[in-house]
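Proteins fold reproducibly. Take a sample protein:
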Amino acid sequence: MYTVIKGTELLLEVIQPNSLSEIHFGEYDPERKKNAFKTLIATILSARSKDETTIKVVDGLWNKYSTPEEIAYAPLENLEKLVYSSGTYHQKAIRIKETSKIIHENFHNQVPDTLEELVKLPGVGRKVANCVLNISFNKDVIPVDTHVHRISNRVGWVKTNNPEKTEKGLEKLFPQSSWKMINYTLVSFGKKICKPINPLCSECPINKKCLKLIKIPRKSKKALK
């Protein structure tokens, strides 16, 4: 059953948290900070990969190597085999190896907890950094992936041409207290309802707010009447 949350007179559809993070909203669990390194590596590997694939890859990787030092000094070919099914395996293996080495040597095996330090790591952009800050450090940030960027523009909350501008636009639109839930909300919503192609507009609880802003398939329009 869907839960509708009001924020700045707009509605967000809360379906379920992103399965990759396995987080449910509520009181922050300090255990998440202990898993910051795993969250970081998983998010790097999740690029262009389905969540279920990423979870399997990370589980397999952790069975063999599970610390920054272990991944940093693991043979590259071993890492490539372990992350192969996540796609672009050579590049990802290099990135997690280099990132692990930096965390081991420069941060004493502790994942940094600031955006400025995180984005310096190989394979870490604003989205990955904000995911780590959100999940592991309980920071009020908005990770903007393809779902968040697409839906925010589709329903008219922002009118932007890149994720960073979308992030800034959403920060102005929504109260800071709701920032942490936006990514989880829209990722699930984008997979189940507001899909890139043929969105299920007739099932959308906020369809009346975006009917004039998106091109809806004829069948969906009839269903909404």
Q: What stands out?
A: The two ends are 23 Å apart (CA to CA). The chain has a mean pLDDT of 83.
